[in-house]
Amino acid sequence: MSDIKAADVAALRKQTGAGMMDCKEALTEAAGDMERAVELLRVKMGNKLGKLAGREAAEGTVQSYIHATGTVGVLIEVNCNTDFVARNDEFVAFAREVAMHIAASPATRFIDADSVPAEEREAEERVFAEQVADKPADIQPKIIQGMLDKWLDEVVLLRQQHVNADRHENKTIDQIREELSAKTGENIVITRFQRYAVGE
Description:
This protein folds into three domains: 6-48, Ubiquitin-associated (UBA) domain (Helicase, Ruva Protein, domain 3, Orthogonal Bundle), CATH 1.10.8.10; 59-110 and 156-197, Tetrahydropterin Synthase, Chain A, CATH 3.30.479; 117-155, no CATH class. It is α+β, with helices and mostly antiparallel strands. 47% of the residues lie in helices and 13% in strands.
């Protein structure tokens, strides 16, 4: 079964704290049965299941990226659970790679969709509703949702494919983060970032 829904993978991740690929594989093996997928993950991960997502990320690193022109720069804080991982070269490289992505993505303003203010989301929806007012009423909601999703892809960091698509195999920032989380066994959290550009 290859048509596993992203929403089901996300729900299983939230419930278990397991990595995205582990959740997708479990759902595929379980033919979409959520309870069976949880059982499969319990067998695979044992005592780790459910603990990863809830662990406090109190260690980490602050990294920067300055474009070669000297006109754009980014500061980013990425957290993890232990100072051992915080000093890990791969963890630091991840923070720098995300900073570089943000420097190249001026529309990026939020870490995840939950941090987008409701009033801002609603304002965008009103604009989109005006733009599709001439479309048949029964398809307007679907069009508006598609436009909203596209807007969220532009402004939400974790939803975006890394700008270096070849190097990161077209993965999103969240997928890269999850792979590092699974590899290190720690909760990797992008906490905050600030992008600076000359003249802005």
